[in-house]
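Help wanted!
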Amino acid sequence: MNNVTITIDAMGGDYGVAVTVPAALSILKKYANVRLVLVGDEKQIKSQLGFLRRNNKRLSIHHASQQVTMDELPSKALRTKKDSSMRVAIDLVKSGEAQACVSAGNTGALMVISRFVLRTLSGVDRPAIVTIFPTVNSSKDVRMLDLGANINSCADHLYQFAVMGSVLTSALDDIETPKVGLLNIGEEEIKGNDLVKHAAQLLSESKHINYIGYVEGDDVFKGIADVVVCDGFVGNVALKVIEGTMQLIAFYIKQGFKKNWYSRIAAITAYPVLNDLKKKLDPGRYNGASLLGLQGIVIKSHGGANTPSFANAIKEAILEVEKNVPQRIGEQVGIMLEEAEF
Amino acid sequence: MNNVTITIDAMGGDYGVAVTVPAALSILKKYANVRLVLVGDEKQIKSQLGFLRRNNKRLSIHHASQQVTMDELPSKALRTKKDSSMRVAIDLVKSGEAQACVSAGNTGALMVISRFVLRTLSGVDRPAIVTIFPTVNSSKDVRMLDLGANINSCADHLYQFAVMGSVLTSALDDIETPKVGLLNIGEEEIKGNDLVKHAAQLLSESKHINYIGYVEGDDVFKGIADVVVCDGFVGNVALKVIEGTMQLIAFYIKQGFKKNWYSRIAAITAYPVLNDLKKKLDPGRYNGASLLGLQGIVIKSHGGANTPSFANAIKEAILEVEKNVPQRIGEQVGIMLEEAEF
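Answered by r_m:
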């Protein structure tokens, strides 16, 4: 395997260096071909490394004096935070010193800065956020996009999301022609708003997309589609509602097993199963959303990610570097969009 | 308690009379003040009653020769199905022979026909679909609207949904000033699309709405808001995604407990807890969405509802009749909208 260098926005997320530094160390232990650059306040990073009493030759520190806060206006972050850990981590991808960047920081700022610094691939109007979900078909996952990068998409954008999602799935999962579904509120032709109706037309006319038609919210997890496409507002609501539902059910399970002495004993017996379930319901297991459509790899981790979960986001970055995702998307988007006469 | 008469679209839903007839009988057994009118094919209804070998004096049959199919175009159903079980069931509410109607049929058709026959309350532009969800605060539920009646809402509509949702919650749950949240993709003022930003302005200026600001998808189940307001496209996706996530987790639980001999034994020990959980995750427990804003009560049951679940939808109708919901909404909407200078 070739050497892979990835920059880490060490200050991003709810826990900053307390999570990003140990996650980086754990990755270096597992991947001998990976180099990581921790970007952020040198003092804080060094102090965290000292606290952990660990270090690694393939780990370097790149000092950045500023930090993008979680509630900062993205345009303001772009204008005023030119030496922020997030910005510098992306700059290093642009300059070729690294092949990917991972951040758990402010999603809007990450999107705006990435787009400004790295630019979109030729033929891509807007980048999209994509992540993977499990399905009831254990051998099959589903990717959904856009999850919040674009809040007023037009049909052409949804078409581009379909192209990018297909190429990503094809590259990472070795599926030749991934099945693409369009998120709608009904399976029948008669339902849906103008946006999805128009996008459905574009997708069904395309020779390059294996378009399977509309899918509803509850179809996402059925494994009938490999890629589900939607506007970013709808996708982000769906993403958060999935998290909320999982938290609600986890609460029910806990409450149920704590109810009385009998259920407490049952909980002990059922511990291995419950522990397995807990792992499956952990959103961190699937942590690491890609900002797709850029001339470079940017992975967004959940802001509240813990160490193993942030490490998963770094793994996603390594995988996309090794599979050469942006180049493949660039080539395919070029071919598909050209033939679709855009 | 006063007498309550409710019409049942006996042919609606995936199972028609096989579910609607036994559900009606179970309700009559529990509610001595309720009369039910089964509307639909007399032969089929009688045959089902004969099959069950049961009847009830407070149960009557109103023959209707047509049926609205699940995939029928709503406008076509309105035009051509004037003697359908759905249409006649609503007509009987309009004529005053019944105070509410329950149907598990085609949602779009039910909405279009209800609106045409019953008309909206003065001050309400569009009816909305509302239902109730549990939260992690066991003493608190949350109502969410619109869940699919309107796919291109404007800010005024979202404001009206907030008013209607508040009044309904106030009437049914005795909460004086229900907390209203607006579904968005970020908690901060900087996020969201133009629709939610404009609606947020209207809501925060209102003296009559206890507006608590933006809520994200994962906040819905936290019990921080009593009412969550959104556009129908987004709301319907959220509703279906909740169902899909619950199905996925139910699948995981089953799979986990069937894995090996140990987990199978654990499943036996944990049976009471798992059974309780199964009941809690059953979407039928909360079956019965209201079509709010009409001059009459119309309750939509899930199309795939089983007998106890369809009975829950009838219970919701009874409750709304007893609490005089449409009149209360009409009064409050009138006052609030007038003072808001609409």
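OP: Thanks! One thing I noticed: The CA atoms of residues 187 and 214 of chain A lie 5 Å apart.
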